[in-house]
Amino acid sequence: MILALALMLQAEDLSPHIARANDADKPQHQMQAIDRIRKRGAEAVEPVLAWVEKNGRNKMGILFTQFLGELKDERINAMLVEAVRDRDFFWRPAAAGALAEHRAKKNLELLRKLLSDYLWGVRASAVRGLELLGDRESMPAIRALLNDEIYDVRAQAARTMHAFGDETGLPVLVESLSSAITWFEIDYGQIAREDAWNFLKKLTNDDFGFKPWEPIADRQPGLKRWQDWIAKKFPKWREMVPENARCTADAAEYVFGFELRSCQRGDFFFRIDAQNNLVLGYFNLVRAPLTRDERAAFDRELAEIMKVDREVPYGMGGCDFEQYYLKVGEKRFQKLWVGKGGRPHEIDPFIKLVHGLVKAKFGEAEAGDFKERTQFFRGVD
Amino acid sequence: MRKLVPLLLLLAACDRPSTGGGNPPAPPPAGPTTTQPPPQTVQKVAWATLSEIKYEQRKPLPEQVVALDGKRIEIAGFIYKGSGNVRDIKEFILMRDAGTCCYGPQAQYPHFIMVRVVDGKGVNFTRDPIVVVGTLRVGEKWDGDYLDWIYELEAVEYRRL
C-alpha cells in the first residue's frame, strides 16, 4: 500500500504545481506549491527545467526563483547564472540570492563581479554568496561596501565581515540604529533600525531596551546603551563609520517627490525641497540648487502633470512603478501612480526635462540611470 | 396544540369590530407597512482580531473569528495586486501590511482577506491604505487541494483611509 502510494506520488506530474508556484494572480498558492516541489527533491529538477524552457524565465515568480537556491543541481545553477546575467530578467536579486545558496566554487568569479552590480539586491546577495563560499580574499572589496549607498548592502557587508571574524563593520550597524530617514510620511529609517537591531541583539542576547519602532525620544536611552556597548569595543567607533553610512538629520521640507521602484531596473528617487534644491536619493541624499529659470521650467512641466487625473492609476500592476507626490495643500500631497507602460504622454516632457537637470547637476551616469529606469514606464499606445 | 388555542382566541378578539360607543379606533401607525430587516450594524474590526490567532489547516478556527462570520464589518488594509489591470478591480487581496511585495515575506493566511466587490464599481489600485466595508465570510476555502483563503469579504463599500 505504502509502495503504491509512493509510486503514485512519483508518477504525479509536477508541472501543475510549478505553474501554481509561479501564478502571480494566486500568490497565496505559491508557497504551498513550492512545499510540494521541495518534497520531491532532486526529482523536481527535470520538470522545473522543462517548465522554464517552455514558459520563459520571466514567468518565474520571486519566491520560486529564491527556492531554486535549494535545488543544488548543475543545470539549475547554470540557469541561475543565465538569469543573473540577463538584464531583462525580473528577479535578478532573487536569482543572485539563489546562486549564493548553491555555494558552488565555480560561481566565485561571477559573485565577485556582482559586488559592483547596478542593483543593490544583487550586490547584497553577492556578498552573502562570497560569505557562504568562505572567500576571505574578497574581504577588501566587501569592506569597501560598508560605504555602499544602500543600507542593505552595508549591513550585509558588516554581517559577512563578522562571520569572517572581523568586527570592524559593527559600528556601521550601531550607527544605523539612529537612522531616521523619512520619505514624505513614511519612516524608511525604521527598516534599517529594525534590521540592524535584529542582528545586534543576537550577538549580545540583549536588546538594551531599544525598540526600533518607538518614537525617537523613547529610543534614545536604548540607543545610548548600544553606543556605549560599541564604544567599549572601539572607542573611536564613530570614525570607523564611512561617509555614506553616517546618519544625517534631514530637516528639509519638500514640495515635490518622485519615487521609482523596479526590481528589474533599479530604483530612482528625487525631490524638490522648499529651498529650491533638486535632491537625489532617499537614504543618502545629494542636493544641487536649481536656478530660477530651471525651476520655472520644472514648474511649467509640473503644471502639466497636475492636469492628469490622479484618481486613477495607469499602466500594469506589479512591483514596478513611478509615483509622483504632488503638493495640493499645506503638507498635503496627492499621489499619481504609474505602472509599467502606463505613463500618460502629457508627463513625458517632464521626464525629459528632469533627465536634463539630473545630467547637468549630477552627471552623465546618474542621468543614464534615470533615463533607463523611466523608459520602462513610458506609455504604450 | 393546547398552547395555540388561547393565542388564536386572542387574535380573533382583536379582529372583532367595535360594538359600543366610546372613542373611535386609533389610526394605524405611520411608516412602511412592509416588513424590512433592520440595517446591519457595521463592526469595525482590527487586524489583531483576525491575524493573532493560532491557525492550523483543516482544524476548527478559533471562536473569536468564527463569531464574525456573516457580520458586516469595516477594516483597513492594503491592496495586493499582482500583474494585470489596476483599475476597476473586482477581486483583490487585502493585506494587513504594506510590505508584501517583491521583497516582502509571504503573507500568512490570517493576515489577508480575499475581497470581492459585489456592489458597484471596482477598486482602483493604490499603495495607500483603504477601508473596505462588507460581509465577512470565515472558513477555509479550497481550490482542489490548495488552500485559497480563510477570510473572504463581500465588499459593498470602500474608500481611501
Order of helices and strands of chain A: HHHHHHHHHHHHEEHHEEEEHEEHH
Helical content of chain A stands at 40-55%
Q: How many E strands of chain A?
A: 8
Low-confidence stretches of chain A: none
Number of helices of chain A: 17
Q: Which descriptor suits the 3D outline of chain B?
A: globular
- CATH fold call of chain B: OB fold (Dihydrolipoamide Acetyltransferase, E2P)
Poorly predicted segments of chain B: 1-34
Averaged pLDDT of chain B: 77
Output the number of helix runs of chain B. Answer: 3
Short description:
The complex is a heterodimer of chains A (381) and B (161). Chain A is an alpha+beta fold and 381 residues long. Chain A has 17 helices and 8 strands.
Identify the notable features of this structure and list them briefly.
heterodimer, A: 381 residues, alpha+beta, Mago nashi protein, two-stranded antiparallel sheet, 17 helices, 8 strands, 50% helix, 13% strand, globular, B: 161 residues, alpha/beta, OB fold (Dihydrolipoamide Acetyltransferase, E2P), five-stranded mixed β-barrel
